[in-house]
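SECTION: protein entry
WANTED: fold as tokens:
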Amino acid sequence: MIHKQTVIPLYPAKTGRIAFYAALILILLSLTQISAAAPTGQLAYAVNGFDENLGRFDWNLYTTAIKGTNNLKATPLNHKGMYPAWGREGELLYFIQWHGGLADVYSINPDNPKNKKRVTQISGTYRFLAVSPNGKKLAFNGWTMEQLPQENQIWVLDTETEEMEVMTQVPHFGWPYSFWGLSWSPNGKRLAFSLSRPGWLEHLYILDIETQEIEILTELNKDFYPVWAPDGRRILFLRWNREFDTFCVIDIETKIIEPLFDVDKATGYWADWSPDGDYMIYSRWGTVYVYNFESGETEELVEIDGSVFVISWLRDIRILPVAPQKKLVTTWGDIKHR
């Protein structure tokens, strides 16, 4: 006891300084944690409106670099295009461009967007472009110029060989059916998509790229625009309701659906996950918002003069190991007999 009293005398002034510096350190640590948790990355989106650089009322591609949520700017790439999708490291931005009533997939370097490269060797009517996690494959739906609209299917294009392969054989029964979104799983082995079926309901499905087997994810609703979460376990989507729509998240294994929040109808909603899965971005007309899953709060990121169409967040792609599990799958042959 005597030793402790003689070695560590606690004088009031010194005690105050220690408390002050301790509090300062805690504040700095807290600010560091807040800063580290703030959303960062690069956004790409298409905007429908009059563009002064293009000199016409048309679609134009934009990017926005985000670090936190302050002083964000929309940078026009001055390329007519829709369905933008980032390459693996952001070195390329893929998009679909229409010309003469047909569409093709193109790529540009977003830092030097003047050099545009055509990726598809066969023109057609293509929509909902998605890039695989390793950047080697592109998925989109549509039909080629030699086909009819009712032959609308999902295609996968190899970016190295530029060869296209049809992945689905959806029976059309003479009627065209529309796809409403495509998204790769983080391990690059599956695709989530929405498709309208008889009865005009839009269901969510999962396609196994290797076996081409299809699993039903949702039924008896109108579900659109699936986006796979970075953790590989959940999918974000938009559910139609009569008076409003609802952003939801579904657990792939349990099929449990968690509603997030309702949104007003017919205002052009598109969404994507942040690289860490802590946030989602979504658009409403020409405004882009960020939603915090933990706090449930929404903040405006950037506002554009026009209407945002499809939005893509450049993420830190990691090939996540996914243990194979036994599950029931269904094929289109099974579905049409129900």
Notes: The CA atoms of residues 291 and 298 lie 4 Å apart.
